[in-house]
Amino acid sequence: MPNLLITGANRGIGLEFVRQYIELGWRVFACCRNPDQATLLKQIASMHANSLSLHELDVSDFEQIDRLSTKLANQNIDLLLNNAAVFLDTHANSLGRTDYEAWMYCLRVNSMAPLKMTEAFVNQVRRSTQKKIINITSKMGSIADNSSGGYYLYRSSKTALNMVTRNLSIDLTPHGIMTATLHPGWVQTDMGGPDAPITAESSVAGMRRVITQLTPADSGKFYAYNGKEIAW
Ligand SMILES: NC(=O)c1ccc[n+]([C@@H]2O[C@H](COP(=O)([O-])OP(=O)(O)OC[C@H]3O[C@@H](n4cnc5c(N)ncnc54)[C@H](OP(=O)(O)O)[C@@H]3O)[C@@H](O)[C@H]2O)c1
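Above: the input record for the complex with NAP. Below: its predicted structure, written as tokens.
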């Protein structure tokens, strides 16, 4: 059975990934900041004790990432899914009022932590059968698509993540590891809000399809949940 390691697994898109991969028979290492309070995740775990384990992980704490990697040193990770992220832009356009502390934190969680996770778990991925590292990004990080401005913190953090992913695809190809950066669409979650047109269920089903069909030739590309490639 393949193994998935995912961050931000307690709600939203992360929780839905856990649900769907468990249904498919995968073994899932689900990371979240507060496992004790992760009621929905614990419910799934109570029904799938052999295939789902919960792990405390705040991705902004890089020492905690290293400790988790040591704890899971003997596991093979077929799919590392860097999903956790924050959206800290309090106004659509905060030009003139930029919160630089919030921006630093946003870059740490959204751009740096996925690279740190990759560095910490690359050996477990390299030893696996499927060898995939997927970073959940956003179309808001596409420079080509940006015609509306604003949202400096989130946009720049996802643009940086896209470059990290592209770089990883080059550096990890010799190790047989594939990477991609995926846009989930505008999805009904705490981040996406209730007006979003796409359910977490259909977004994740689409992203799973893209992940399954990923070949070495696709590595380092930027895809939407429906399989369409997005311009950088
Ligand atoms: N929803 C959309 O429309 C949309 C669109 C484009 C891209 N995305 C991307 O899709 C991914 C999932 O988003 P979502 O909509 O599911 O967001 P969400 O509902 O806000 O959930 C975010 C998840 O990230 C976790 N998280 C935040 N900071 C963390 C930290 N420091 N350490 C560990 N976990 C942390 C949260 O944990 P806590 O519960 O502990 O806060 C939560 O599990 C993100 O990468 C997001 O940027 C979403």
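Notes for the reader.
The domain at 3-224 is CATH 3.40.50.720 (Rossmann fold).
Residues 7-8, 10-14, 32-34, 57-60, 83-86, 109, 136, 138, 183-184, 186-187, 189-192, 196 surround NAP (CB under 6 Å).
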